[in-house]
Amino acid sequence: MSEKKLYGIMAEFDTPTELVDAARRVRDAGYTKTDAFSPFPIHEIDEALGIRRSILPFLVFGGGVLGLLTGLGLQYYTHVIDYPIIVGGRPHFSLPAFIPPAYELTILFASFTAVFGMLFLNGLPMPYHPVFNVPRFALASRDKFFLLIERRDPKFEYEETRKFMESLNPQEVFDVEE
Amino acid sequence: MQDVKEFREQMQPAILEGKHDFATVSDKIGDITLKRKTPFHWFVGFAIAFLITQVLLMTITYLVLTGVGIWGNNQPVGWAFDIINFVWWIGIGHAGTLISAILLLLNQKWRTSINRFAEAMTLFAVACAGLFPLLHTGRPWLAYWLLPYPNTMGMWPQFRSPLMWDVFAVSTYATVSLLFWYVGLIPDFATLRDRAKSKVFKIIYGVLSWGWRGSARHWHRYEIAYLLLAGLSTPLVLSVHSIVSFDFSVSQLPGWHATIFPPYFVAGAIFAGFAMVLILSIPLRHWYNLKDFVTMTHLDYMGKIMLATGLIVCYGYAMEAFFGWYSAAQYEYFMIRNRIWEGPYWWSYWLLILCNGISIQLLWFKRFRQSEFWLFTISVIVSIGMWLERFVIIVTSLHRDFLPSSWAMYSPTIFDWSMFIGTIGFFFALFYLFVRFVPIISIFEVRTLLPEAHVHGHHQDFEEIVNEVEIEKIDKP
Amino acid sequence: MSYKAPEELKNFQRIALGVGGIGTLALLIGGLISPEMREQALRSWLLGFVFWGGISIGSLGILLLQYLTGGAWGVIIRRIVEASSRTLTLVAVMFIPILLGASTIYEWTHPEKADETLKRILDHRAPYLNLPAWIARAVIYFGLWFLMVYLLNKWSKQMDETGDWKLLKKASQFSGPAMVFFVLLVSFASIDWVMTLDPHFYSTIWGFLFAAGWGLASYAFTIAVLAWLSTREPMNQVIGRRHFHDLGKLLLAFVMVWAYFNFSQFLIIWSGNLPEETFWYLERMEGGWGIIGVILIVFHFAFPFVVLLSRDVKRNARWLASIAIFIIVMRFVDLYYIIGPSPRVTLHGAKLSFSESISWMDFVGPLAVGGLWLWYFFGELQKRPLVPVNDPFLESAIEHGKSH
To answer: A4, A110, B74, C150: most buried, per Cβ within 10 A?
Structure first.
């Protein structure tokens, strides 16, 4: 046991309300390297843990603009610059007809940004993570709620933090090993 | 006298039945995939669907070896079963996206327990749809020529053609639907990973869940991404069937060239799609005992949407007929007369009106919307009706060319039929596999419907104070 | 709480009536100068009528829609759209000049003067497109709309007085079939009143274009009124950020639907390139009209679309109201783009370029109709509590606005 390094201390809760209350107290106590785990999204936890709004929407907007420009650029290049040819009496730069493909590429690029941006910002895929070393953590995807304070938190002091976690009225407190 | 509370419940009925908590929800849905013995009817159903899929494979093999001449379409009816089936299938897919995206944006909580399998339906329907244009190219192994890439021929695809728009629309639609569906599945795969007993399944679901651990920060970005995807899928789904309608409407053919086509096609797509969702969900809720999640309320709402979209489709028929006459254009007027009563295919038009126009009027009544038998029957009728609609639009518009010397009749060959029926088998085979290996209802979203998922206590009061203060700041500048 | 409308509305009423009165008088005098001016005055009146009447009719549509869908947004805006829908009485009165002047502005009323092509078309359409039938249809449109407005407003008032919330169910059940008729009426009314201005043109999507356009205008108008009310007693107690967020989302959807219908019509006609319909856009791309088309693309669609994507804009009453008013102005531009280039009867079906066509009356007409309309609207708004006080979902609707 002793040769394994400690990753943090984790507490288990039964309900989202308890989790949010505890998270707020952890934040108020000055801990910053914290995280909560739940089987479904809880909106109140963002404010309780001090999570700032993600930049994802702006990335997606950028992705969409890039898609639009790509779509228009591709069609402009192919039909005006590289191989201009009149088809069906329409002008080389047939903007109305170019809108549907450009529109689809806008959505495609924006969607890719949304999905892969989310995964990237979340650091997924992550094949190994210390929290999974706690056997009860399997229930985080079922019906239990967990709160974690990491060891790298500047305020982390094993005895004190553990005592603090126990004072939050959890079901159980665990040491999480690296 | 009825009590107000009761009245509210009657107007906005509960969308979950029975007593459930986080654990029972997870177990009940997860165990269908993980623990419950595969039921006998699954094997029977899958075997039948799989056999029919073989018919498809044989047809495709013969088609590729011989050529599209084995189909019945020939001048002037150059498009027939292939495009009818393409439009029919891709339309069916639209309901899945509507449920997963549009209803999410509209905050319709009842979508939660049907979105997963409806999205799966979308993917499989798009897969079936894609086969038809792909094979109709004649040389499907050269289908990549449709994509714009620098090639030795020095040529580019023709972006002014709606068929090119289709390539972009359908491939984007398939990709984004898949992404949307998969993103929704990540937390549920994590649930299965944590509940699986066998090592193999633990690894498989572990890989599929990408190491999801339910972190608050992850959920935060996850929800934003999910909402954004919904926001992107909504205009996407409208554009896809609009572009499909452009395949016809940007041409000059009477019967195809009508400005109402885009919204009318979109409505028809959703109409047919909800029929298919009902066809799938009614047996599913019985076989897998999911009546707590897919309740009569769900079926009732779907019936209402079917009615609404069906009425829009009927509006389209009415406008086509009215403007066919009003246009005072010789060919338009001939087309509509030919389609409705003078031409040899008049029966298909009236059958279509019977299926899509008359049958759905039953859905005005709660009694029919609350009956599984009637909903199922009407859904089957509507599926046939929507197929007929495309038959009417495509075949009756083409079979009377501008010159009487080019007039001809169309009849499908056995290979047209085997191809069509084959895709139905393929669709159900894929759906059976999905039901067996993937959670058919979104577990994590159903958890959020439970009353205990809401955070309460002093916390909420705190929220209210914050809100009130901020409202005052905003509204009294 | 009484939910009584703020007193300032009385001042608004006076101003509106003044503007409306003076404008109508100016139009009347202008119309007496010459036959050309008379046609112009009536066309400008029609422009105002289609714009403001569209807000009445569109509000009826939104009233039906919110009964069908339910939800907090409907409860919050119900009284405003009800008041707008009750202006239908005035709108019907304002239709009288168009009724009387139909042969002055509609070229199809003179088949005897038509050239050979048009004559053939008008002969074919004669069973539908003749003056008595046209008038009879207008009577039917207004009659059925009246019935809907009357019943829905009656039940709503009864619910206020008796507290019988079962009336809500009645209204919801009525709204389904009513919606079917409503859409058909809007389609044929917009065909009769606007599309036939150009006797050659036809487009099957026309009804949807107007359903979306009128819906958008009335919805934006409702948001603007609501935002103003939310700065005053008593509505500042009722409305929360979430309400505006929801309304803003739907506004964005309306903007997109409008663009979608218009682009569909344009793309199909442009691609088909058939002479019997492509002339309609050709005329609207030449002679200075093209600029208006570009303005519409940029400011009726692109700009509001991008702005409304922002969550912060949607949640801020002032910003949302500004963009709503901007959209209302663009609705006027759009209607002018549709009506302005249509052929003139006094010029034997000739069509004018933008600079020849635009007249002071095109601004005074909508102002005149608008003044009268707003005067009537603000009067109606004061007649009832600003929220449906006995609605069983009122409480949860107010609560909803305060959530995230």
So the answer is: A110
Helix (H, G, I), strand (E, B) or coil at B290: coil
Within C126-205, where are the H helices? 131-162, 166-193
Q: Alpha-carbon distance B23 to C145, whole Å?
A: 53
Closest A-chain CA to B225: A114
> Between C271, C311, C404, which is nearest A97 by CB?
C271
- Which one, of A92, C175, C264, A121, lies nearest residue B222 by Cα? A121
How far B95 CA lies from chain C's nearest CA (Å)?
18
- Judged by CB atoms closer than 8 Å, whether chains meet at B235 and A79 is answered as no
CATH number at residue B200: 1.20.1630.10
Paired tokens of C96: 């009288």
A61 contacts C267? CB cut-off 8 A: no
Nearest CB among B262, B326, B463 relative to C128 is that of B326
- What does the alpha-carbon distance between residue C400 and residue C240 come to, in Å, rounded to a whole number? 8
Please state the domain count of chain B.
1
* pLDDT tens digit at each of 178 positions of chain A: 455 688 888 888 888 888 888 888 888 888 888 888 888 888 888 888 878 888 889 999 999 999 999 999 999 999 999 889 888 888 899 999 999 999 999 999 999 999 999 999 988 888 888 888 888 888 888 888 888 888 888 888 888 888 888 888 888 888 888 8
Output phi, psi for B150, to 5 deg.
-65, 125
pLDDT at A47: 81
| Dist CA C229 CA C235 (whole Å) | 6
Q: Please, which chains are in contact with C (at least 3 CB pairs closer than 8 A)?
A: A, B
Please report, for chain C, the start and end positions of each structural domain, with discontinuous segments joined by +.
8-393
> Is residue B25 one of the residues assigned to a domain?
no
DSSP string spanning B2-32?
A: --HHHHHHHHS--S--S---HHHHHHHHHHH
Which residue from C322, C172, C333 is spatially nearest to C251, judged by alpha carbons?
Answer: C322
Question: Inter-chain contact B11–C318, Cβ cutoff 8 Å?
Answer: no
Tell me whether residue B155 is in a domain: no
Best mutation target, B208, B213, B247, to test chain A (most A CBs within 10 A): B213
Of residues C124, C204, C392, nearest to B7 (C-beta)? C392
What digits encode the pLDDT tens for the residues B100-134?
888 888 778 888 888 888 999 999 999 999 999 99
- Asked, for residue B309, whether it belongs to a domain, the answer is yes
Q: Using an 8 Å Cβ cutoff, are B366 and B10 in contact? A: no
Answer whether B262 sits within 8 Å of C264, measured CB to CB. yes
Q: Can you give the residue range of the structural domain that contains B57? A: 38-149+170-465
